Amino acid sequence: MVNEGDSQGEAEGDPGTVRPGGRTARVRAAVLRAAEDALAEHGFARLDLGDIARRAGVGRTTVYRRWGTVTALVADVLADMAEQSERRADTGSLLADLRANARLVQRTLTDPRQAALFKAVIAAATSDARTAEAMHRFYQRRISEWSPCVEQAIERGELPEGTDPAEVIRAVSAPLYYRLLASGDPLGPDVADRAAEAAVAAARAGAYVRIVP
């Protein structure tokens, strides 16, 4: 828990722009963890900044002054998730890289806490524009992180020139999210591997080559 009495001289700063050490960073980490717990437990609709402040062990005024609204706090949760997410693989093989990507997504979506958190945020994004924007930024950051795997494969001659890296990365994770959110089918490592293999096969066949008008 973080107490407001620590190091009062530090400025609060804007969400997502704080320096890595000191009270400001400790407060942000505690509040974001509390927000994630609350989202995983009872979803977006019942989020309350006062409850999150209590969970985090910080003053209500600190939370209200720094984030102001539930949607601003959820946006910062997503920004933090992007910052903390595992970095991309670099094996020298497109298939191995994309298997690593798929396995990372699969582990996240089968973790009880993380799966509940993603479901809550995705549900919120369907009805709240600011949350939707934050989610789009989160996924764009993850796609940008993994796109070099595809770019390097193009340079090695594994894929046709003009292949769209972002589309290949999307193709890996899309069937995994479908199972989480729509079908409810089992989501094991074998499913992740098949998603990566299918994306690679389609990319090699030219399915993701950009069409120039």
Automatic annotation (TrEMBL):
Protein name as catalogued: TetR/AcrR family transcriptional regulator
Presence of the UniProt keyword NADP in the record: no
Ranges for region Disordered: 1-23
DNA-binding region range list: 48-67
Cross-referenced Pfam families: TetR_C_11 (PF16859), TetR_N (PF00440)
Regions annotated as coiled coil: none
Organism from which the protein derives: Streptomyces corynorhini
Keywords linked to the UniProt accession: DNA-binding, Transcription, Transcription regulation
Keyword Nucleotide-binding attributed: no
InterPro entries per record: Homeodomain-like_sf, HTH-type_TetR-like_transc_reg, HTH_TetR, Tet_transcr_reg_TetR-rel_C_sf, TetR_C
